[in-house]
């Protein structure tokens, strides 16, 4: 581990790999430090499935066109203005050039997956998912001569003024300081450190589930912030969705998602509804439900459907709890039976009297409750057909947004301005663009665009 | 939910997780077939298992492989279910248990086959005859090989009938047969969905090596079979008797067939030695290996027989070649050879299911 490298990349997910590949292609000797063991390499990229991409016309598997302005508007709607517009637009524009680059470096795309047709124009799906993408990039990087170390956790960044001089790496119980001429930090957010989440959110964060890798503990981010690096973002902001409450604490990934919310009523552990389940189609609402559930007692919710709705959404990994009456369902879910019965009854009474024919599960059907608070503004069909089914919901954090401030060259900033030889890419800097909310497939866009830029910039610095 | 056997139950557990993920949809026919359903009964799993060509793309792409608690290994789960189904459908069942699980038994069958042919050559020495008929008369060969061909065919027929009932197959049309034939001929399900091939001999690296080796074996075998069939037709219909010249149907089919069969089997053995045994059915690895060796030996001994025409080696080579063919034929319903029949049946059933769902 003593050979001096031109470039050290900290992290082993999509952004890190893009930086390593760009650096190696521009002639750098590159060392990539992945804190996870090989089987869990790739950070959260392992769990991803698509890449949101701007395109002027049909591109690879993408249909139609998706312009910069439309993409930007979609982003603005979810972040509610909390973004760096300049960086965001640059990222969106660059995405169009990234897709052919990804294909040239081993990534394969497939048409939109069954059940996700609404994304066929905007999001290019990876054949085999994110782990296949990660595998392809590791192959490409290794063919380019990139040295990869697994189980190699970076614990400290050595700074001397505005320069990074080395990184401390812990591997197999030993710590060594490695030197290089340029460094890229792509080691993710801090959501794997539950204590840090608790400092930001309070003790309720103990009830959060982490959808992705347990290896993103924010060690490098913390170290850089402690040494005065400029930060962006709010530590409570993250990409969080409502997932099956029975999911594993870490790494449950895509199969723990629940798409039943729009066809259900969602109650808290008191048996009371708390938000409009039918506000919009699910791809536009899934990302707000993590926070909604996080705000409920014990950070738990329960989605209740009847047999009419059971097959309207994608199957998920755990079967629902089933019962013949609402009271029995409440008992099985651990909810107060009388209250749940009253909630369902008042919801049913507020539903339009003859919904048959006007219920359209795949589009906003305007089938709204009357006189109910909170209302359900679409798909308000009475829950009357036994058996009844329930799923528990918990907040599932994908990644946190507090990160390092970067400019459009991915350069990291300290208290006295930019660092001379340090760049950042991926979730560790995504808060620069994502102030809140989330847009499906945009994490991979940020990682790819900034990973490539970071690798190119680092290589130019070394040359 | 519990299915008919623990192996089917475990496969269904994994399939339920795959159905919630769907990332692998583009790799092969298994996933689109799976994603049409929400719940899986034994027959559904049996169909998926026999449709799976064990390309392993889904394993290396899977974020839920061990040590993850979901412990997915779909290629292995389906290989186990497939293996179990062949043993369940075989008639008689006991024979399948022996030959699928024991390479020694299969090798033993080969030895017995060869010994039988040596004995036949010695005991039934013809008074006259040309080429290899000087060693064993045509009548004696027919007496041995006609039952050795028809009996396994009957047994396979019974197995396929049981398969068809379990997977809920319906009336087969020409369109279904053509669709299945196209798929088998190009080995589409080992192409990785985009022609990049499978993940076999070098972890997650895609390669067409296995697809091409398997194609060589399949086409080689079919050419060899065509060679024998054309010889039979020439013998009985046109009264043209072996030995045949190079420019005759039996040789024009047989020589390239033998070369393909030998080369393909060699390739498959080389690949199989490098692949991860844990992604198949490990208990039958040895018997599968002996089976591929048997296929290769059949092709190679046939070529050798031709190469040494007219020499003293012919009697011994003929006994080895015909002994290998005999062992291959007789063990067909109970060895890995059976997979070809069930695979085609699964492809036909898949064509039916697609047909039914297309508006």
Automatic annotation (TrEMBL), chain A:
It holds the Pfam family FAD_binding_2. Keywords: FAD, Flavoprotein, Oxidoreductase. Its cofactor is FAD. InterPro entries: CobZ, FAD-dep_OxRdtase_2_FAD-bd, FAD-oxidoreductase_2, FAD/NAD-bd_sf, Succ_DH/fumarate_Rdtase_cat_sf. Residues 6-435 form the FAD-dependent oxidoreductase 2 FAD-binding domain. Signal peptide: none annotated. PANTHER family: FAD-DEPENDENT OXIDOREDUCTASE 2 FAD BINDING DOMAIN-CONTAINING PROTEIN, FUMARATE REDUCTASE. This is FAD-dependent tricarballylate dehydrogenase TcuA. The gene is tcuA.
UniProtKB/TrEMBL annotation, chain B:
Coiled coil: none annotated. This is Tricarballylate utilization 4Fe-4S protein TcuB. Keywords: Membrane, Transmembrane, Transmembrane helix. InterPro entries: Citrate_utilization_prot_B, NarG-like_sf. The keyword Transcription does not apply. It comes from Roseinatronobacter alkalisoli. The chain crosses the membrane at residues 103-125, 131-153, 216-238, 253-271, 283-308, 314-334.
């Amino acid at each position: 581990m003593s050979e001096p490298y031109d470039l050290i990349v900290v992290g082993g997910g999509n952004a890190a790999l893009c930086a390593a590949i760009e650096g190696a292609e521009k002639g750098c000797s590159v060392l990539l430090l992945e804190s996870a063991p090989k089987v869990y390499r790739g950070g959260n990229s392992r769990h991803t499935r698509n890449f949101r991409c701007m395109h002027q016309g049909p591109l690879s598997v993408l249909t139609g066109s998706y312009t910069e302005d439309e993409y930007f508007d979609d982003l603005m709607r979810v972040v509610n203005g909390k973004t760096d517009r300049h960086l965001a637009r640059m990222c969106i524009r660059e995405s169009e050039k990234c897709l052919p680059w990804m294909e040239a470096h081993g990534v394969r795309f497939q048409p939109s997956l069954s059940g996700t047709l609404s994304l066929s124009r905007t999001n290019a799906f990876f054949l085999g998912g994110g782990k296949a993408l990660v595998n392809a990039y590791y192959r490409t990087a290794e063919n380019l001569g990139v040295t990869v170390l697994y189980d190699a956790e970076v614990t400290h960044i050595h700074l001397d003024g505005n320069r990074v001089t080395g990184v401390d790496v812990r591997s197999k119980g030993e710590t060594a300081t490695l030197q290089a001429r340029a460094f890229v930090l792509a080691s993710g957010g801090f959501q794997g450190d539950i204590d840090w989440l608790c400092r930001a959110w309070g003790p309720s964060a103990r009830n959060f589930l982490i959808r992705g890798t347990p290896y993103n503990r924010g060690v490098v981010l913390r170290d850089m912030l402690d040494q005065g690096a400029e930060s962006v973002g709010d530590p409570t902001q993250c990409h969080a969705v409502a997932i099956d409450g029975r999911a594993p604490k870490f790494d449950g990934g895509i199969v723990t998602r629940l798409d039943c919310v729009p066809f259900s009523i969602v109650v808290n552990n008191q048996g009371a509804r708390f938000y409009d389940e039918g506000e919009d189609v699910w791809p536009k609402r899934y990302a707000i439900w993590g926070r909604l559930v996080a705000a409920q007692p014990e950070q738990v919710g329960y989605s209740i459907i009847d047999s009419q709705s059971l097959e309207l959404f994608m199957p998920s990994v755990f079967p629902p709890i089933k019962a013949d009456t609402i009271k029995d369902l409440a008992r099985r879910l651990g909810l107060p039976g009388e209250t749940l019965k009253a909630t369902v009854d008042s919801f049913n009474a507020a539903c339009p009297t003859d919904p048959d024919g006007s219920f359209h599960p795949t589009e906003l059907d305007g089938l709204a409750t009357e006189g109910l608070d909170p209302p359900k503004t679409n798909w308000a069909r009475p829950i009357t057909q036994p058996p009844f089914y329930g799923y528990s919901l918990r907040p599932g954090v994908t990644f946190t947004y507090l990160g390092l401030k970067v400019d459009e060259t991915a350069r990291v900033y300290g208290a006295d301005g930019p660092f001379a030889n340090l760049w950042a890419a991926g979730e560790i800097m995504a808060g620069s663009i994502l102030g809140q909310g989330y847009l499906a497939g945009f994490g991979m866009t940020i990682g790819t665009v900034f990973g490539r830029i970071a690798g190119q910039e680092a290589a130019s610095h070394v040359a | 939910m519990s299915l008919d056997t623990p192996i089917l139950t475990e496969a269904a557990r994994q399939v339920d997780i795959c159905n919630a993920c769907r990332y692998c949809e583009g790799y092969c026919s298994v996933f689109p077939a799976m994603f049409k359903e929400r719940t899986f009964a034994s027959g559904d799993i049996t169909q998926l298992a026999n449709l799976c060509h064990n390309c392993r793309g889904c394993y290396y792409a899977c974020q839920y492989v061990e040590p993850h608690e979901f412990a997915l290994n779909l290629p292995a789960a389906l290989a186990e279910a497939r293996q179990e189904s062949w043993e369940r459908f075989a008639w008689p069942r006991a024979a399948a248990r022996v030959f699928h699980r024991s390479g020694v038994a299969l090798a033993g069958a080969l030895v017995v086959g060869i010994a039988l042919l040596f004995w036949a050559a010695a005991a039934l020495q013809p008074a006259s005859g040309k080429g290899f008929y000087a060693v064993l008369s045509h009548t004696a060969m027919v007496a041995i090989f006609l039952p050795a061909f028809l009996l396994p065919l009957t047994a396979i027929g019974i197995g396929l009938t049981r398969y068809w009932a379990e997977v809920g197959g319906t009336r087969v049309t020409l369109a279904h047969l053509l669709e299945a034939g196209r798929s088998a001929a190009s080995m589409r399900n080992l192409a990785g969905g985009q022609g990049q091939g499978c993940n076999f001999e070098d972890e997650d690296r895609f390669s067409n090596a296995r697809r091409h080796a398997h194609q060589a074996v399949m086409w080689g075998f079919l050419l060899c079979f065509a060679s024998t069939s054309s010889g039979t037709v020439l013998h009985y219909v046109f009264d043209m008797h072996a030995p045949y010249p190079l420019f005759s149907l039996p040789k024009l089919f047989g020589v390239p067939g033998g070369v393909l069969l030998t080369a393909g089997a060699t390739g498959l053995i080389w690949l199989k030695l490098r692949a991860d045994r844990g992604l198949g059915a490990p208990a039958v690895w040895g018997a599968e290996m002996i089976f591929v060796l048997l296929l290769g030996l059949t092709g190679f001994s046939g070529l050798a027989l031709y190469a040494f025409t007219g020499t003293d080696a012919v009697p011994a080579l003929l006994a080895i070649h015909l002994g290998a063919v005999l062992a291959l034929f007789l063990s067909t319903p109970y060895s890995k050879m059976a997979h070809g029949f069930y695979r085609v049946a699964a492809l036909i059933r898949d064509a039916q299911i697609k047909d039914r769902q297309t508006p």
